[in-house]
């Protein structure tokens, strides 16, 4: 599932390509991927231009010049492609926004969605999310204060979108490995020093992942050399049984709260 770095990569790359462009046509192949009748969706989106693209947690918001927004959550298996019909991957797109010669294809929206909302509706939809981990005002003190109140295990806490927004399966494991702390630790056993280390690791891992385009490998457009660049830099995620990059010990793959979890029992305490 795309997490904060993947959606931030999409935001950056799409802003460079579709900002201020007019949506000349809309194609809906799966009505369940949108939240209003197809006719209404098309009438309010067609002919509008995109004035900005922002991100909140794992969501992208396409701001339209008429005041509406398109709120995207790709969920599990969702991704996007921007290009011509001949360049499009051989995959079914549930929603297509055409900008003329090139189109933006929303692919794999079986669980994900592209909702048409006004600003109030979008704010309501996102109101339950926790703070953004990379915002300037999300300090180490605030981070430790939020986590210290929890009586849960570390990984499920980091991936709880009501606690901290944008971190999922991949980056929770990478953050814990960078910090040298097991993702299976109970929050109540963490010291102040460990909270500080986790905070630094969270910033370091997320910023590096954004710099290298996240871990999802499907390119956004032909010639895309950024998207997916962090995949080869993942230290533990999806590497169960492989040697640890620090100590060579085989990495553990397990399950925690119905999620896969990856860690090194030698390097993490």
Descriptive account of the structure:
The chain is an alpha+beta fold. It has 2 domains: 4-126, MutM-like, N-terminal (N-terminal domain of MutM-like DNA repair proteins, Alpha-Beta Barrel); 140-263, Orthogonal Bundle (Helicase, Ruva Protein, domain 3). Helix content is 28%, strand content 20%. It is built from 7 helices and 10 strands. The protein has helices spanning 4-18, 38-45, 119-126, 140-148, 154-158, 169-179, 192-211, and strands at 25-28, 50-56, 59-64, 69-73, 79-83, 93-98, 103-107, 113-117, 252-256, 259-263. It has a 4-stranded antiparallel sheet with strand order 1-6-7-5. The protein has a 4-stranded antiparallel sheet with strand order 2-3-4-8, with helices on both faces. Helix 1 (4-18) runs parallel beside helix 7 and helix 6 packs across helix 7. The model has no long low-confidence stretch (mean pLDDT 97). This is Formamidopyrimidine-DNA glycosylase. It comes from Paenibacillus hemerocallicola. One of its GO terms (molecular function) is double-stranded DNA binding. Its cofactor is Zn(2+). Residues 2-112 form the Formamidopyrimidine-DNA glycosylase catalytic domain.
* Arrangement of strands in the largest sheet: 1-6-7-5
Would you state the CATH class of the largest domain?
Mainly Alpha
- Range of strand content: 15-25%
Domain tally: 2
Order of helices and strands: HEHEEEEEEEHHHHHEE
Class by alpha and beta content: alpha+beta
Estimate the mean pLDDT confidence.
97
User: What's the total count of β strands?
Assistant: 10
> Any idea what the CATH architecture of the largest domain is?
Orthogonal Bundle
Q: How helical, in percent, are the residues?
A: 25-40%
Q: What are the low-pLDDT stretches, counting only 5+ consecutive residues below 50? A: none
How many DSSP helices?
7
Tell me the CATH topology of the largest domain: Helicase, Ruva Protein, domain 3
Provide the gyration radius in Å: 20 Å
Tell me the distance between the termini. Answer: 27 Å
Major sheet: size, sense and barrel closure? 4 strands, antiparallel
Q: What is the molecular shape?
A: globular
Protein name: Formamidopyrimidine-DNA glycosylase
Domain FPG-type: 235-269
EC number: 3.2.2.23, 4.2.99.18
InterPro entries: FPG_cat (IPR012319), FPG_N (IPR035937), H2TH_FPG (IPR015886), Ribosomal_uS13-like_H2TH (IPR010979), Znf_DNA_glyclase/AP_lyase (IPR000214), Znf_FPG/IleRS (IPR010663)
